[in-house]
Design goal:
The complex is a heterodimer of chains A (251) and B (312). Chain A has 251 residues and is an alpha/beta fold. Chain A is 37% helix and 26% strand. In chain B, a hairpin with a 2-residue loop joins β9 and β10. The radius of gyration of chain B is 20 Å and the shape is globular. Chain B has eleven helices and ten strands. In chain B, the strands form two sheets. A six-stranded mixed beta sheet of chain B has the order 6-7-8-3-9-10, sandwiched between helices. A four-stranded antiparallel beta sheet of chain B has the order 2-1-4-5, with helices on one face.
């Protein structure tokens, strides 16, 4: 059953088409990959989905809610159940707030009566951070720790949909793998659906069930990741795959 | 082949913090050497020490180019190296250029400074842009940096670095800010330009994938120290330092699932709180007692207490 379905989404800025009839569905507990270079429309698609941008045409349906025409209460439910993790953990966390305040912010807004500290500690635990982090400020954390705080902030809401916009590209290699495992864990243990946006095809290949390749606002290829990578039908996909560094020739 | 660049026992201090702690490196003409490490490993600091770009750091040890000591050389003499004998390309091509001057003038600048005539310098700048695969290079000379795409800007920056025919090219993460396809293209251009000129390349990167396909030799750094160095095939096939092995296992590769991706526990040691002994020992799965107290010497090909040094 699909949790999210995007149909024929279009968006233009000042006459320039950025999204040209893109469709995408994510099943419950599925990890969908979205791949494309800068200018392909990945971020615009996410912004439309999260309600930060109003699309010109098309439909977005989340668990039976027509998001583009949803009322206040339905909109609020979506905002509670869908959480986002951004690329840069240096700009996505408020430097003046403590980890406890950052991770608990969504609960404060959406579930004011929930036992906040318990939920925050639980979320931190899910990303491998201890309760000793509660009073820390982002400034004292490494990039990998910050990104884990950002993921904990999302997980604290027990989201059904987790949108990740290039969550590992700003991180060091040794830390990237930690974060990829965390996301996989969230999907397996909590049944969370993921929309994973990336430009690194190797990560997408390892993590995502399905993949959509976006080129200049058009979804040029879509399907089960293993099948698309094994036999890419579109020239653009083949080019992207060819550009992935090859270790096999050497090791 | 003789060594073009020899770095011996280099230390770089900023305030009380030792950013680089005993770096050794030899680079020959025509060789493509990748300096690999995570953020804070000291790879960029090492590269910037060669031309003494950071005035606030204190340098000690020795950096020789063609026998001449760069560390103690007067600033006026060193200027003849920067841009002329040593070309540099940085990660962010936008900050490599003056935003209010056309790129043609800037690409030609290393020649103009050295007294080459305007027309000749302009012609050379056009040739260089052409070599970098930029179509209609003559028309591009009058463009301003902001009018070019990221990939084009970076290629213009490479043209600027190579125009004075340097012997050494220092490239500090030149492809990191680029899209995947442009990365591959820019790498190929650097490779080809280097081969054509028999140029020594010091390529700084955090990306082992880039290293695999391009470098002749690799030096891996961790927390300001070199931990392993070898030719690229041997390093990838049979890494000996635990950090190199863990790093290779942490890189996602096409055709492998999440299961084969092994994360390194803990956080990377920063120069400000470098652990005693081998800096990697708190994260190392095979560390023994000695690793926590004694800094391992770099012998043969790695700095690790657990690596057997072959008998000579």
């Amino acid at each position: 059953m699909s949790l999210l379905s995007i149909v024929n989404l279009s968006k233009a800025f000042k006459g320039v088409t950025v999204l040209d009839g893109v469709s995408l569905t994510i099943g419950t507990g599925e990890i969908a990959g979205l791949v494309g270079e800068s200018g392909s429309g990945k971020s615009t698609l996410i912004r439309c989905l999260m309600g930060l941008e109003k699309p010109d045409g098309g439909a977005i349906t989340y668990d039976g809610i027509d998001l583009l025409r949803a009322g206040r209460a339905e909109r609020r439910r979506f905002q509670r159940e869908a959480q986002i993790v951004f690329q840069d953990p240096y700009s996505s966390l408020n430097p003046r707030r403590t980890v406890e305040q950052i991770v608990g912010e969504g609960l404060q807004i959406h579930e004011p009566r929930a036992p906040r500290r318990d939920r925050v500690v639980e979320a931190l635990d899910q990303v491998g951070l201890g309760a000793d982090m509660l009073g820390r400020h982002p400034g004292s954390l490494s990039g990998g720790q910050r990104q884990r705080v950002a993921i904990a902030r999302a997980l604290a809401m027990r989201p059904r949909l987790l949108v990740c916009d290039e969550p590992v590209s700003a991180l060091d290699v040794s830390v990237q793998a930690q974060v990829v495992h965390l996301l996989k864990d969230a999907q397996q243990r909590l049944g969370t659906s993921l929309l994973f946006v990336a430009h690194d095809l190797a990560v997408v290949g390892a993590l995502c069930d399905t993949v959509t390749v976006l080129d200049q606002g058009v979804a040029v290829e879509q399907g089960v990741t293993a099948a698309v990578f094994a036999e890419p039908a579109h020239a653009y996909t083949r080019e992207l795959l060819a550009a992935v560094p090859d270790f096999e020739g050497i090791s | 082949m003789s060594a073009l660049l020899e770095i011996r026992d280099l230390t770089v201090d900023a305030g009380d913090v030792r950013l680089v702690d005993g770096m050794n490196l030899t680079l020959r003409r025509g060789e493509f050497l990748a300096l690999v490490g995570e953020s804070g490993s000291g790879k960029s600091v090492t590269a910037r020490a060669i031309t003494r770009l950071d005035r606030r750091t204190r340098l000690a040890g020795s950096i020789r180019m063609d026998g001449a000591e760069l560390l103690t050389m007067p600033e006026s003499e060193l200027r003849a190296y920067r841009g002329a004998r040593i070309g540099m390309v940085f990660q962010d091509p936008l900050s490599s250029f003056n935003p209010v001057q056309p790129i043609g003038r800037q690409i030609a600048e290393p020649l103009l400074i050295r007294g080459v005539g305007r027309a000749a310098a302009r012609k050379k700048a056009e040739e260089m842009l052409g070599e970098m695969g930029i179509t209609r290079p003559g028309e591009r000379l009058t463009a301003y940096p902001h009018e070019l795409s990221g990939g084009m800007r970076q290629r213009a920056a490479i043209a600027m670095a190579l125009i004075a025919e340097p012997e050494l090219l220092i490239a500090d993460e030149p492809t990191t800010a680029l899209d995947v396809r442009m990365q591959a293209k820019v790498l190929k251009l650097i490779r080809e330009a280097a081969t054509a000129r028999h140029l020594a390349v010091l390529f700084i990167t955090h990306d082992l994938g880039i290293v695999a396909g391009n470098a002749d030799r690799v030096c891996v750094m961790y927390s300001g120290r070199p931990v392993e160095e070898n030719d690229v095939r041997t390093l990838f096939r049979a890494p000996v330092h635990p950090y190199t092995r863990d790093l290779l296992a942490a890189v996602p590769r096409l055709g492998r699932g999440v299961g084969s991706l092994t994360a390194i526990p803990g956080v990377a040691a920063t120069p400000a709180n470098r652990p005693a002994g081998c800096a990697y020992h708190p994260r190392c799965a095979v560390a023994v007692q000695r690793c926590a107290t004694q800094v391992p010497a770099f012998e043969a090909r790695a700095a690790c207490h657990l690596v057997e040094v072959p008998a000579r």
